[in-house]
Write a structure and sequence with these properties.
elongated, 2 helices
Length: 60
């Protein structure tokens, strides 16, 4: 379980870096092609964290 949280945290860090790069590009007037990919990666990371949290909360 702890390994899953660390993996999710690491993944979210990567996604956060990508989102920052995209935000800079958008603010400069660009429309990055990677936007959909990063949003999908963000959703996957959120789902992983939610799943791990649910497992932790529902332990007997």
């Amino acid at each position: 379980m702890i390994a899953e949280f660390f993996a999710a945290r690491r993944h979210l860090g990567h996604v956060g870096n990508n989102l920052n790069q995209i935000a800079r590009a958008v603010n400069a007037g660009a429309q990055p092609a990677e936007l959909d990919v990063v949003i999908a990666a963000t959703n996957r990371a959120i789902q992983r964290v939610q799943h791990a949290t649910d497992r932790l909360l529902h332990q007997d």
